[in-house]
Amino acid sequence: MNHEIRLANADDVPRVKEVTDAAYRPYIERIGVVPVPMEADHAADVAAGRVFVTGDPVVGVLVLVPEPDHLFLESVSVHPDVRGTGLGRRLLRFVEDHARELGLLEIRLYTNAMMWENHRIYPRYGYELVERRVDGVYDRLHYRRTLTP
User: Fold this and answer.
1) What's the mean pLDDT when you consider all of the chain?
2) CA 144/CA 146 separation, integer angstroms
3) For residue 71, which of 38, 90, 94, 40 has the smallest C-alpha distance?
4) pLDDT (tens digit, 9 = 90+) per residue, 36-56?
5) CA torsion angle 18 66 104 61 (round to 10)
6) What is the pLDDT of residue 60?
7) How far is CA 30 from CA 85, 88, 112, in A?
8) Section 63-74 average pLDDT
9) Which long-range contacts (CB under 8 A, 24 or more apart) does 85-94 make?
10) Residue 2 — very low, low, confident or very high, per pLDDT cuts 50/70/90?
11) How many angstroms separate the CA atoms of 95 and 98, rounded?
């Protein structure tokens, strides 16, 4: 799978929703609520230039929000059909490269505490746990990754 990672366009919105829903749907029963990425306004995120995709059809989705001092990784979605192919690793590398291109040397993200698979994944890629915080019905672990220029 060597598809480029590119900025999403309006034509990608239905597939962005499909991939996001497919990636997060398995967590609904475990965490007891619909994960936030499934309720996102994908069309607005695409229009704002926050969504990057890969594949034809799209099988990987990133939602990235530049902040003054960091890049916020709002969501990463890999379609279940391509899990285990290294796509997630490619997407996380892209996030690092994109942050550097923007002159940002920190990436932040959070994940639901009940998505325990992520507790193993993010530290493997240099993310450190910063805090655990409950936001309404969401019990979240906040991570950050400091980059070198």
Assistant:
1) 96
2) 7
3) 94
4) 999 999 999 999 999 999 999
5) 0
6) 98
7) 25, 22, 10
8) 98
9) 85/1, 86/1, 87/1, 87/54, 87/59, 87/60, 88/60, 88/121, 89/125, 90/5, 90/54, 90/60, 91/5, 91/54, 91/60, 91/62, 92/125, 94/5, 94/52, 94/62
10) low
11) 5
What's the whole-model pTM score?
A: 0.95
Which residue type sits at 34?
V
Token pair in block for residue 104: 């940002």
Helices H / strands E in the chain, number of each: 5, 7
The 10 Å CB-count burial string (b at 16+, else e) for 56-91 is eebbbbbbbeeeeebbbbbbbbbbeebeeeebbebb
Q: How do residues 70-79 score in pLDDT, each as one tens digit? A: 999 999 999 9
Query: 3-state class of 11 per DSSP?
Result: helix
- φ and ψ of 119, to 5 deg: -65, -20
Buried residues in 15-34 as b, exposed as e (16+ CB within 10 A):
bbbbbbbbbbeebeeebeee
